Amino acid sequence: MADFKLTYATMFNPPEELHTQYDASLAKWRANLGREYALLIDGKDVFADEKFEDYTPINIEMKLAVMQKGNEKHAQMALEAARKAFPEWSRTPWQERVKLLRKAAQLIEERLFDLGAAMSLEVGKNRMEALGDVQETADLISYACDQMEANSGYVVEMGRDPLPNHNATNVSVLRPHGVWLVVSPFNFPFALTGGPAGSALVAGNTIVIKPATDTPWIVRLLVDCIHDAGLPNGVVNFVTGPGRTLGQALVDSPILDGVTFTGSFDVGMKIYQDFGRRNYVRPIILELGGKNPAIVSRHANLEDAAAGIVRSAFGLQGQKCSAASRVFVEEPVYDDLVGRLKDLTEKMVIGDPTDRKVFLGPVINKSSYDDFKSFNEELSQAGRFVTGGQVLTEGEYARGFFCQPTLVADVPFEHRLWQQEMFLPITTVGKVESLDEAMAHANSVNYGLTAGFYGSDAEVDWFFDHIEAGVAYANRPQGATTGAWPGFQPFGGWKGSGSSGKNAGGHYYLPLYMHEQIHTLVRPKS
Length: 526
Ligand code: NAP
Ligand code: MG
Known about the structure:
By secondary structure, the protein is an alpha/beta fold. The protein contains 14 helices and 24 strands.
């Protein structure tokens, strides 16, 4: 374990030891790739008849792991195990649950570098992004524990109603729902599995985890941390396999009491509708896509704006739900800003993301790679490439899914790609006459996840007041629309970007995993 703590601050100025430890972990994995990993059901490793192979997007010939192709039967087994474990876990004192989850967070921190290196290989994340995803997960779990403690387990004494000849007490308690499903996306496989899982578990639910098919390995390593912390068998279950079959079977099962789904709008809305066809309404938390705007005023510090925009447009290859995918610039500073964006983008280092010098790795899979080519074909008809537009196929790029970070200007605002999430390193830039025009465009989409602004202090108030987004950043060179940390920037979306209206890693989040019960007791006055 490192003798420094990776925090939001060290992310921008890492000590040398971070690199040494990461490199050691990477070498260890490289010598030991390709082993088989099981499902975890009722505390036991379970193997399916069918398997699938997991390759790195850096090199399509490098096999990372062999995983189980779970089916409907495994979905059922995992849910039944969670159902069986629920009564005892839900009645375990919350202080005891907190203790076990703090242990899980500690194990994640102890394994930070091994997990970060595996994450870079599986997702194609650069090392800082990979380590950030892992550390953030430990912090999200700790934050859920902190919230449980700060609220004394959500037991609140209410008023005593004045009854003649009787004493009344009323107590509000929050109690867990039951069996909770966590379905996570490929791009933040740690934080977006471990965050919801940690909250569901601290609250007293038992869970089934289903990761994305692109990232089953790293999520199994996360499940090991939680399991090794000593949670009772069946409290945490893990299944891998196709979303369309295994995932759908989980969603459709009558055993299920609640869901947290993080992923695309289309899949999320389908799950929402399917989950609604039941005998009563159960909770479902959806964290969906984004089409995040950055607005640049004529009064902006253009150096900060350019730095923040390229970071957020191209960090993790633009495959963040919070990526800055639309930029609106006031006419007087448009040419200047676009020139700066071009310069900074062309300086970005693309390559094997485990290399410390590299900022952009590959996109996640062939389907993303093919999308990149077809979106650029379409954009070449509609606008002008400021920079990028091509896939990289030579030399070190030949066996991976590498794409140039791409900026496109002069695309008419009516074009569908100003509205649709591309989820790639492609950002469109548009010139506006006024900030009001920029705001109208910014709010014109179905999404409302994050947004960024660069301008004067007076304009910032106006921005916060008008933007439709769950996370709004102003004058931030570290990222126009990206970068959230539990306890600092709780993360969630409005409109088509999220269903609960409460942000993960914030003070309203944990209660989403519980329902309220009022205990009224009346005794005769003695
Ligand atoms: P995705 O294709 O929607 O998949 C998300 C998860 O759903 C995967 O585990 C997938 O499994 C599973 N799934 C697919 N069909 C299912 C079904 N019928 N029933 C149950 N589960 C099913 O998303 P992705 O490509 O992994 O992630 C990218 C998307 O996530 C983007 O839209 C991004 O904006 C969004 N995202 C949002 C947030 C946020 O906090 N708001 C954060 C990160 C990402 P398979 O992989 O096996 O198909
Ligand atoms: Mg892969």
